[in-house]
Amino acid sequence: MSARHFLSLMDCTPQELDALIRRGIELKELRERGVLFEPLKNRILGMIFEKASTRTRLSFEAGMIQLGGQAIFLSPRDSQLGRGEPLGDTAIVMSRMLDAVMIRTFSHSTLTEFAAHSQVPVINGLSDDLHPCQVLADMQTFLEHRGSITGKTMAWIGDGNNMCNTYIEAAIQFDFHLHIACPTGYGPKASLLAQAGNRVKIFTDPNAAVAGAHLISTDVWTSMGQEDEVQARLALFRPYQVNQALLDRAEKDVLFMHCLPAHRGEEISEDLLDDPRSVAWDQAENRLHAQKALLEFLVKPALGS
Ligand code: CP
Ligand code: NVA
């Protein structure tokens, strides 16, 4: 039987996603109570990072250790991947030694190609197209603070990047309305928009997009891999900064999320992360809990454990 992968939120049913975020909350409570819970004893997660990371590496590595297992970090700089060993060959070898593999990469096709050759679950730790682990944690965070997001309205402001694409998938799977305000030419993937139908609306004016919003989120204007475009993007995205005045135009109980890292003074005002409406630190912490739920769901425990 081929392994179950998590390359996108669409790899799970809405029921499975709901169960994962509720399980994330339970695992968080277990940890807060200091309960030892080690279902993945002797299990090993391989992690390939082609891009930098703080939260993703920490949360997967700490999560595996807390679940009783271990994680091994690889990068193209110090593995044969960087010297041209074919990805499919690497996938076969890694899946013979490990119990799951997490990959942070540029092209999304790296994930699909690796998964096609892997006998063990492959998890998307961010690609140029999608960041499903982050949005899983974000959905857990919304549930904790406000209850179900179904039927609510979210506004995405800024770049139509991997986070924005993933929120379109979340709008489909969790059934909420999504308003997206991006500069012309910097919108999300057209194929995802077509799939989402009329639950997603595109705006160019951020003020119009946040009207009625229960959740507002943004991200850096220049994602990893786009460093050559920094100057052009700084000028173009300036009207898309999220600040207190923009939050004031949304619903009274609006929450603000940012996947981090943030560039204060660019996509957010200097002090927005300190605003009581911001839940960015909870989001970051929930990477740990939501991914532990995901690992528990995907990785087979060792026999006898
Ligand atoms: N949000 C997120 O994925 O952070 P890192 O890039 O630090 O992993
Ligand atoms: N959009 C950002 C997210 C970082 C977590 C990037 O891809 O660099």
UniProtKB/TrEMBL annotation:
<dbReference type="GO" id="GO:0005737">
    <property type="term" value="C:cytoplasm"/>
</dbReference>
<dbReference type="InterPro" id="IPR006131">
    <property type="entry name" value="Asp_carbamoyltransf_Asp/Orn-bd"/>
</dbReference>
<feature type="binding site">
    <location>
        <begin position="259"/>
        <end position="260"/>
    </location>
    <ligand>
        <name>carbamoyl phosphate</name>
    </ligand>
</feature>
<comment type="pathway">
    <text>Amino-acid biosynthesis; L-arginine biosynthesis; L-arginine from L-ornithine and carbamoyl phosphate: step 1/3.</text>
</comment>
<feature type="binding site">
    <location>
        <begin position="53"/>
        <end position="56"/>
    </location>
    <ligand>
        <name>carbamoyl phosphate</name>
    </ligand>
</feature>
<feature type="binding site">
    <location>
        <position position="162"/>
    </location>
    <ligand>
        <name>L-ornithine</name>
    </ligand>
</feature>
<dbReference type="InterPro" id="IPR006132">
    <property type="entry name" value="Asp/Orn_carbamoyltranf_P-bd"/>
</dbReference>
<feature type="binding site">
    <location>
        <begin position="223"/>
        <end position="224"/>
    </location>
    <ligand>
        <name>L-ornithine</name>
    </ligand>
</feature>
<comment type="similarity">
    <text>Belongs to the aspartate/ornithine carbamoyltransferase superfamily. OTCase family.</text>
</comment>
<feature type="binding site">
    <location>
        <position position="80"/>
    </location>
    <ligand>
        <name>carbamoyl phosphate</name>
    </ligand>
</feature>
<keyword id="KW-0963">Cytoplasm</keyword>
<feature type="binding site">
    <location>
        <position position="287"/>
    </location>
    <ligand>
        <name>carbamoyl phosphate</name>
    </ligand>
</feature>
<feature type="binding site">
    <location>
        <begin position="131"/>
        <end position="134"/>
    </location>
    <ligand>
        <name>carbamoyl phosphate</name>
    </ligand>
</feature>
<dbReference type="GO" id="GO:0042450">
    <property type="term" value="P:L-arginine biosynthetic process via ornithine"/>
</dbReference>
<feature type="binding site">
    <location>
        <position position="219"/>
    </location>
    <ligand>
        <name>L-ornithine</name>
    </ligand>
</feature>
<feature type="binding site">
    <location>
        <position position="104"/>
    </location>
    <ligand>
        <name>carbamoyl phosphate</name>
    </ligand>
</feature>
<dbReference type="InterPro" id="IPR002292">
    <property type="entry name" value="Orn/put_carbamltrans"/>
</dbReference>
<dbReference type="Pfam" id="PF02729">
    <property type="entry name" value="OTCace_N"/>
</dbReference>
<protein>
    <recommendedName>
        <fullName>Ornithine carbamoyltransferase</fullName>
        <ecNumber>2.1.3.3</ecNumber>
    </recommendedName>
</protein>
<keyword id="KW-0808">Transferase</keyword>
<dbReference type="GO" id="GO:0016597">
    <property type="term" value="F:amino acid binding"/>
</dbReference>
<dbReference type="GO" id="GO:0019240">
    <property type="term" value="P:citrulline biosynthetic process"/>
</dbReference>
<dbReference type="InterPro" id="IPR006130">
    <property type="entry name" value="Asp/Orn_carbamoylTrfase"/>
</dbReference>
<dbReference type="Pfam" id="PF00185">
    <property type="entry name" value="OTCace"/>
</dbReference>
<feature type="domain" description="Aspartate/ornithine carbamoyltransferase carbamoyl-P binding">
    <location>
        <begin position="4"/>
        <end position="144"/>
    </location>
</feature>
<dbReference type="InterPro" id="IPR036901">
    <property type="entry name" value="Asp/Orn_carbamoylTrfase_sf"/>
</dbReference>
<feature type="domain" description="Aspartate/ornithine carbamoyltransferase Asp/Orn-binding">
    <location>
        <begin position="151"/>
        <end position="297"/>
    </location>
</feature>
<dbReference type="GO" id="GO:0004585">
    <property type="term" value="F:ornithine carbamoyltransferase activity"/>
</dbReference>
<dbReference type="InterPro" id="IPR024904">
    <property type="entry name" value="OTCase_ArgI"/>
</dbReference>
